[in-house]
Write a structure and sequence with these properties.
Elements lengths: L10 E9 L6 H12 L3 E7 L4 E7 L5 H10 L3 E2 L16
Antiparallel strand pairs: 1-3, 1-4, 2-3
């Protein structure tokens, strides 16, 4: 694709299971905005029905540990969260 400055090996995918999001959608809007501001975050989708955040990011600019920290800093509860220093990307080479 024209204009992209990264290779597929630099693209990370992270899925975070969230808990107790407010029903008005304020938590989702706040969290999405915070994640989109983070360096290297390319895409954020948060499902209100399943309470799951899907994040695509440039692994040369950020990592799962930093993304988990953003979620925690926004006071959003994470279901079965790993300790921050053990967060892993769900991306794997084909």
């Amino acid at each position: 694709m024209k204009g992209l400055n990264y290779s597929l090996s630099q693209v990370g995918k992270l899925t975070i299971k969230l808990e107790e999001l407010d029903r008005q959608g304020k938590d989702i809007k706040r969290l999405k905005k915070a994640l989109q501001k983070a360096p290297g975050v390319m895409s954020v989708y948060i499902s209100s029905s399943t309470e799951v955040a899907y994040i695509i990011f440039d692994s040369t600019q950020t990592n799962p540990e930093q993304l988990y920290k953003i979620v925690q800093d926004e006071d959003i509860r994470i279901k079965d969260a790993p300790p921050v220093n053990q967060a892993k990307s769900s991306y794997s080479e084909p």
